[in-house]
């Protein structure tokens, strides 16, 4: 039998927790805590430090905290807001949630990502909170994304089509090229193929080439033909895989360094 210790809160801690419970969202700043308590910076930091030890507030970044309500348990594990805290992490910059996290959201993979990938126009250090690691990927051009509501907070997430292209541009954040192949196959009935073709042709040639190869491999020849373009030199199919053994695909301008059966392994479960 597991015995749980009762948790005691001081007067100032209770005051702040009550204010946070009545607040509009789970994320708050040290300035908001100061306003709720009506006391000095030193006193506020002391209260926050005690609540942090009691797992009731979780630091997201300097001066920004996530409020973990009592229903999150004694360990303060609060996963419901993993996506909803993202706007507070990125500030005023343009962004979208993408990569493996977006693949899971759109039903392209059943795998629950422990890392939430966020595309931004600038670089930012990773942040760990709410049982997740937030990794920021710098992109000169963000691409296509949509606004959705998570736990009452509006967040940006890459569109189905952009998610596919990001999986091919950044396979290290999307379960590899194998994960990209599964994503395309899983989303084949929900993809806007005209949009995907336009986005692919407007982006990097290596991404278009990888997409074309996967479409051919998956038996989607009509879709593959729609994105064919001029030869732009040879690129690696899987830039992060072994490069000692490979074959050439002249049609797609690729150096194929993955076996077809490995790329299509996911289909064994279909």
Q: What would you report as the Rg, rounded to the nearest angstrom?
A: 23 Å
- Can you write the helix and strand succession as a string? HEHHEEHEHEEEEEHHHHHEEEH
The total strand number stands at 12
Q: What overall form do the CA principal axes indicate?
A: elongated
Largest sheet: 4 strands, mixed
Structural class from helices and strands?
Answer: alpha+beta
Provide a descriptive summary of the structure in words.
The strands form 4 sheets. This protein has a 4-stranded mixed beta sheet with strand order 4-5-7-6. A 3-stranded antiparallel beta sheet has the order 1-3-2. The protein is elongated, with a radius of gyration of 23 Å. It is of the alpha+beta class and 270 residues long. The chain has helices at residues 11-21, 30-37, 41-53, 86-90, 99-105, 160-169, 176-186, 193-202, 205-217, 221-225, 260-263; strands spanning 27-29, 57-61, 64-67, 95-98, 115-120, 127-129, 132-138, 145-150, 153-158, 235-236, 247-249, 254-256. It folds into 3 domains: 11-77, Arc Repressor Mutant, subunit A (Orthogonal Bundle); 82-158, no CATH class; 160-270, no CATH class. It has 11 helices and 12 strands. The longest helix is centred in the N-terminal third of the chain and has 13 residues, at 41-53.
Brief descriptors of the model:
270 residues, alpha+beta, Arc Repressor Mutant, subunit A, 3 domains, four-stranded mixed sheet, three-stranded antiparallel sheet, 11 helices, 19% strand
């Amino acid at each position: 039998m597991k015995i749980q210790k009762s948790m005691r809160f001081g007067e100032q801690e209770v005051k702040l927790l009550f204010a946070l419970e009545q607040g509009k969202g789970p994320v708050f700043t040290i300035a908001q805590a100061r306003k709720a308590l009506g006391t000095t910076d030193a006193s506020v930091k002391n209260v926050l430090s005690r609540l942090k030890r009691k797992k009731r507030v979780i630091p997201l970044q300097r001066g920004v905290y996530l409020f973990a309500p009592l229903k999150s348990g004694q360990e303060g594990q609060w996963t419901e807001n993993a996506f909803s805290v993202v706007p507070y992490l990125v500030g005023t910059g343009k962004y979208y949630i993408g990569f493996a996290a977006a693949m899971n959201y759109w039903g392209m993979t059943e795998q629950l990502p422990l890392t939430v990938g966020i595309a931004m126009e600038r670089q930012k250090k990773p942040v760990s909170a709410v049982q997740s690691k937030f990794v920021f990927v710098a992109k000169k051009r963000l691409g296509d994304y949509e606004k959705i509501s998570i736990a009452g907070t509006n967040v940006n997430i890459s569109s189905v089509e952009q998610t596919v292209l990001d999986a091919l541009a950044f396979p290290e954040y999307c379960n590899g090229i194998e994960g990209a192949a599964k994503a395309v196959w899983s989303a084949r009935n929900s993809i806007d193929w005209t949009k995907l073709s336009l986005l692919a042709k407007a982006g990097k040639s290596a991404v278009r080439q990888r997409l074309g190869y996967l479409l051919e491999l998956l038996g989607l020849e009509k879709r593959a033909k729609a994105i064919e373009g001029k030869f732009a030199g040879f690129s690696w199919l899987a830039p992060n895989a072994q490069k000692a053994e490979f074959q050439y695909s002249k049609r797609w301008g690729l150096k194929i360094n993955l076996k077809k059966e490995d790329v299509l392994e996911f289909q064994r479960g279909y």
